[in-house]
Amino acid sequence: MSDIRVRFAPSPTGPLNIGGIRTALYDYLLAKKHGGTFILRIEDTDQKRFVEGAEDYVIDALHWLGIAPDEGPRAGGDYGPYRQSERKSTYGEYVQKLINSGHAYYAFDSHEELEGMRTRLERQGIQRAKYDASTRMDMRNSLSLPESEVKELLDSNASYTVRLKVTPGETISFVDEIRDKVSFSSDELDDKILLKTDGMPTYHMANIVDDYLMKISHVIRGEEWLSSTPHHILLYRALGLEDHIPKFAHLPLLLKPVGKGKLSKRDGAKFGFPVFPMEWNNPDGEVYEGFKEAGFLPEAIINFLAFLGWNPGTEQEIFTNAGLAEAFSLKQVSKGGARFDFDKAKWFNQQYIIHMNDAKLAELISQDVVDAGYDVSQEYLTKFCGLMKERAVTLKDFLSAGSFFFQKPEIIDEKTIRKKFKLENENHIQSIIETVFVIEDYTTQNIETAVKNYIGENELGFGAILPILRIGVSGTMKGPDLFSTMELIGKAEVDERLRSNLVRFKEIKLIQKENQADA
RNA sequence: GGCCCGUUCGUCUAGGGGUUAGGACGCCAGGUUUUCAUCCUGGUAGCACGGGUUCGAAUCCCGUACGGGCUACCA
C-alpha cells in the first residue's frame, strides 16, 4: 500500500446521483493508480438532513459499480469510525485548540440577531453582510464581550457556536491539481462556524480534522467546494497542520443535457433517462429510476463516467476498470462543466454488451426471463444472447426485441406481408414448410441449404420468400439470422408457427385485395 | 451585487505560438446483410467576441459576453 489515500465523503441526504458517482470514481481511480487506498467517509454532521437508507444506498451502489471502498463504515479499517456522527468527541479537542490559540472564538448570537445584522447592513447598501472582522465586534461573542460575561454565559449553558477568526488583508493561495494556482483575499472570507449549537462540527471543521486523522493525501471533490478551500487552508494553518495539507482537485460539475444549470435529480424524469446508479424510493413516495434497472452494465457506466470530464490523451475509449486506473491522471481532467449525454452512455453500454460473453449475458438476464414467465434452459438462454446481443443497447432489449424466442409472436408485421407476400407463392411456401419439416438434423446450415435450394430450383428469388418465412417465425422483420433463429426455436415450434401464420397471411392478403377493389 | 472558476464541431474531447484544428457520440450517405443490428467507408459541423503581444495566436496577456459555483448553525 502506498501512502496515497483518497476519500469519498458524501452526505447521506439522499441517493447518490451520477455526479457523485463520478467523483467517487475519480477518487477510486487515483487511489488504484498509485496502489493506494480508497476510503468512504459518511459526512452526517447535519442531523436535520439525514435520510434513512442513503448510506446503504451509497455503499451498495459503489459495490455494484465495482468501485467498492477499501475502508469505510461497512468495510472497516484502521482509521474508523467512518461516520462523522460517531466521531463527534474527537472534534472537540481540535476546536478547543483553536480557541486556546486565539484562532477561533465563541459566538452567542441567536438566529434573530444574525438576521438583524444582515438586514441592518443591507439597508446601508451592503448586499451580503458577512460575520467577519468588520462586523464581529458589533456582535455577541467572546471577542466583543467582557471576559467575565463570556465565562458567565458558558457556565450558564447558553447555547453558542464556535467561529473561525479570519484575519483580513491576507492573500490565500493554493494549488489545485486541475486548475493550478487559485487565490482568494481573506477580506472576502467570513468567520465560518466550526462548531454548531448542537455540538456537531460543521463540514469545514470535521473535514479538516478527519482528513488529517485519516491521513488523506488527495481531496477530490466538486467545484462547489472551491470557494471554501481557503477556509480549509486557514484551518490547517491555525491547527499547525500546514505540512499535512492534502492536494486538492476540484472537479467540474455535470450539466443538464440541454438548457442551463447542473444536472439535478429531477432531470431523470424530465429527460427520460436515469441519473442514479440504482433505483431509489424516496421517503416522500417518489421513485427515481436507476441505470441498473434500465439494463445498464456497471462497467459501461464506469467507462462512460470516466470520460465525462477526463480523457487519457490517446484515442482509446473502451477501457477496463484496471485500464482506467492505469491511464488516469488528474492533470487530464478538464476544467469546464460537462453535459450529460445519454446517447454516448447507450453507445458504451452497447459496446460492453457486444463484447460480453454469451453465458454471462444469459446470467444477467435470467431473472428478467423468469419474471416474464418464460421457462427455458441456461443453454437456450446462452444461445439466445449470442444471437441477440448485437441488437441490444441495454439488457432490457434482449427480451423486448427477442420475445419471439420464448413465445409465439402476437404482433405480425402486416405491412411487409401485404408488400411481399404473393398469393401465387402460397403453394411454394407450403412446400418449403414441408421440406424444412422433414430435415432430420435441424441445424442452421441444413435449414439454410434446404430453403435456398428450393428457392433456386423454383426460381423464386430470396426477396419473395425469406421475408415471409421470417415474419412467419418471428412476427417481425427485425432480428438475427433467420436460419439460426429457426434452429434455436426448434423444428416443431417453427413448423406450428409457419403453418398457422400462413393462414393468417392469406387472410391479410385477401382483405388487402378487397380494399383495393373497393377503392 | 461581491468573490472565484470556466468557455474548441449539437454533445464529450485532443491540441497549449507555425496542424489541411484530430478522435468519439449523434446525424447523413454508401457498402456488407434475405431483414434489423453489428461492421466498414465517406460526409456534416467547431476554436464565444473585441483588443493587444508576435513575423505568426485556437494556443500568451487584457477586456467584454456568456455559463457555472460560492456568498447558511447544508454539505
Task: Note down, in words, how this protein is organized.
Helix 9 packs across helix 11 (342-354) and helix 12 (358-371) crosses helix 13. The model has no long low-confidence stretch (mean pLDDT 94). The longest helix has 28 residues, at 491-518. The protein has 3 domains: 1-72 and 252-355, HUPs (Rossmann fold, 3-Layer(aba) Sandwich), CATH 3.40.50; 89-195, Glutamyl-tRNA Synthetase, Domain 3 (Glutamyl-tRNA Synthetase, domain 3), CATH 3.90.800.10; 408-517, Orthogonal Bundle (Arc Repressor Mutant, subunit A). It is elongated, with a radius of gyration of 33 Å. With 519 residues, the protein is mainly alpha-helical. The chain has a 3-stranded antiparallel beta sheet with strand order 3-4-7. The chain contains 20 helices and 13 strands. It has helices at residues 18-33, 54-65, 88-100, 111-123, 147-155, 203-213, 229-238, 267-271, 298-306, 321-327, 342-354, 358-371, 378-388, 396-402, 414-420, 426-437, 444-457, 462-474, 482-489, 491-518; strands at residues 5-8, 37-40, 104-107, 161-164, 171-176, 180-185, 193-195, 218-222, 247-251, 254-255, 280-281, 287-288, 338-339. The chain binds one RNA strand of 75 nucleotides through strand 6, helix 6, strand 13, helix 11 and helix 18.
